[in-house]
Amino acid sequence: MHGKLEGLIHQEVYRDNDESFMSNRSGASYAPEGGCVPVVAPGDFKFSAAFLDHGHIYGQTKGLLEAGGTLCSVYDPDQSKLDAFCKKYPQVKAVQTFDEILDDESLHLVASAAIPDARARIGAQVIESGKDYFTDKAPFTTLDQLQQIRTLTRATGRKYLVYYAERVHNEAAWHAGELINQGAVGEVIQVLNLAPHRLSAKYRPDWFFQKQHYGGIITDIGSHQVEQFLTYASAKDATVNFALAKNVSHAAYPELEDFGEFSLTGDNGTSFYSRVDWFTPDGMPVWGDGRTFVVGTNGSMEVRKYIDPQRNNPASLIHLTTQDETREIDCLGVIGYPFFGQLILDVLNRTENSMGQEHIFKASELSLLAQEMADAHGGAF
After folding, report:
1. What pTM value is reported for the model?
2. Residue 159 CA to chain centroid, in angstroms?
3. Rounded to the nearest 5 degrees, what angle is found at the Cα of 359, between the Cα atoms of 357 and 362?
4. What are the residue boundaries of the structural domains of the chain, listed by start?
5. Burial of 143 by CB count in 10 Å (0-12 exposed, 13-18 middle, 19+ buried)?
6. CATH of domain 19-164
């Protein structure tokens, strides 16, 4: 069963009223269910979860399980986090130390959603133990961390994989890439990403508001957006034109950056602009009205990732305009999440079909460089 993913793209995988979307008011706990076709038999791909600081670990775990992975063990020093995870996945074995996972030679991969500034250190331990690593974004909070892991992956041949969920765990965002690759809009000229998020401050841990831990709003949310740009624009690198990050209206959390924006130019001449913020109002029934606009030489598209206001919630839509027509493509429950099956097969076959290693690093590097520029300007130009 280690062959190509067959027949996934247009297979109906869940219905619009599926209760998996009950968590879509909170980005931290958003974890779509369904949408993956198993690509391996039980026991062929074994993984563990460790350091459960961010709720995205549930999305990572679900995707791997639904694609055929076998969840073997879990570790976290916080017993309450461990208990919650075990309640969700009663088949998992809780272990007392992280070393038990590192020493388990049967494992192919470790999934983790640690505090962001600890992700590289944990990843290095996993790689040095002979396993691949699947971390939540942002994968790094400093350029030094990035360089250390770049060097380590080259030396070992292990994978440092990242859960850039806004594309890989969203049907419209994934299908947008397929359409672009098929030439639906011609050559891409510009990508524009709008990424509002709900803060839900009272539910956030202390580290969320400490910049040394989360790295800044562009490092964090912005890494999602850069990854989408590189994918849609087929760019391998880019330069940062401008970047700004600041605290507009959350004086109680002085280290929180609640608004950011930045612009890049790809190495192939493509243009990119992104706005990231923590200003989703409570009246919005989803955690953020994430939208992407792509302009090409022969067409354009708008991607509505999570909601179509006043019409549908949840929603996963593409509005595509070509030289011949304008049409709405409803992706919800149709496209699925091929990324997870591709990731499993990449680990087993040592391929790079889900996401290339240098692409992963470049998305983080550019967001870190943009954050550096924003920090140098102190929130103003």
Report:
1. 0.91
2. 16
3. 110
4. 19-164, 167-337+368-377
5. middle
6. 3.40.50.720
